[in-house]
Each structure stands twice: as C-alpha cells, then as structure tokens.
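Input record (one chain):
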Amino acid sequence: MREISFSVGAEYWYNKQFAFRAGYFYENPTKGNRQFLTAGLGLKYNVFGLNISYLVPTSNQRSPLDNTLRFTLMFHFDDKKEGSAPTE
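The corresponding structure, as predicted from the sequence alone:
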C-alpha cells in the first residue's frame, strides 16, 4: 500500500460562470509524505477564464509547496455559442 497515493476533489459551478473548488492530496510517508488541502475559485466570462487556488499543508513536514497561491489565465477558443448551427 506504500505505492498508492490518492487525491479527491469537488467542484461546484454557479450559473456556469463561477466555480468553487476544494480538494485533498495524500502521499505515503515513505514516498514523500506530501499531504495538503486545496481551495480554489474560478471565473469564466465568454472565452476567458481565471482560476485561483491555494494549497494548505496538513503534515508537519516542510515542503516548497507550503502555502502556495496559484493563478491560471485561460482562453477557451473552442467554445461555441448555444443555439448556433455547427459550421463545417
């Protein structure tokens, strides 16, 4: 069982525009002992998206990822408007 690490997460979208996320990651102590919670927010407007997440350590072992704040800027070029006819 030392080779197995797991992570779980949940995401909720409000009005297909705002996302709320949470997760947990666990790794066996003999394989690195990384254990942390994550919390995040997302925003989608037309073809643009912005994600923000924060990593909170849950183990006593220090890691370079402790208290990390991450930002992601996305462009959704393949999004199609609802109700439009497909183009070929």
